[in-house]
Amino acid sequence: MLAGVLAFLRRRITGDYVIDEHGFDPDLTEHVLAPLLRPIYRDYFRVETRGLENIPDTGGALVVANHSGTLPMDALMMAMAILDHHPAHRNLRMLAADLVFSVPFLAPFARKIGNTLACQADAERLLNAGHLVGVWPEGFKGVGKPFRERYTLQRFGRGGFVSAALRTGVPIIPCTIVGAEEIYPMIGNAKSLARLLGLPYLPITPTFPWLGLFGLIPLPSKWYIEFGEPVATDVHPPEAADDPMLVFELTDSIRETIQHTLYSLLMQRRSVFF
User: Fold this and answer.
1) How many other C-beta atoms are found inside a 10 Å radius of the C-beta of residue 238?
2) What are the tens digits of pLDDT across the range 5-28?
3) Fold classified for 21-183+218-268
């Protein structure tokens, strides 16, 4: 371990590492962030992953997942599943909300670990360059929904992710995540204070704000992440991206696939925490 730390420091001092045009720093991600997240993934949430064979070893692909949990831990756990357990150990390039890039200290770090703006232009550039891209179409509607609506998918927007996949001809891989809904059960929302702070919501949970900083510790729910069969888009011409009916049908089909898989995984789950 010490040798690895020294090797990392040597690379940082000598500049022997690469940062791409979007600010992604794979050396920092794999040798600093991943070791911090790995115990949470493996020992705290005890994530079980299925269907990794549906993710290609090379080339562009778009992974589309449900979003929940009050804080977006699901995106980080999904990235860890692919980095650690996929045969090619691919880095997931995540499309993040504008809010992420408006926070002074968070914005540069988010870019360094692979996040880029959730817009069609950036998505297409990454996909055309052969990257594996992750998107959570529910956005804040999903991650900030009340606990009573858990595991009920919100709207998937206007299907911009489908248009990007059609235009670049990459497969769309539905991903279903069970377990994130229970880490911060959102039983209330301080909307007025959230507006003052410029936030989409300000959660009230059984532990926050009552326990102060301890209330930010997530509950140790048991997680499952399942990657479904790829949906081919190269059977359509690139101009199909401008067909609103086709985009809507594919968006709705992927949403239904994820919702049905959620129900299936929930029926198989024996306990929220064990």
Assistant:
1) 12
2) 888 889 989 988 899 988 999 999
3) Glycerol-3-phosphate (1)-acyltransferase (3.40.1130)
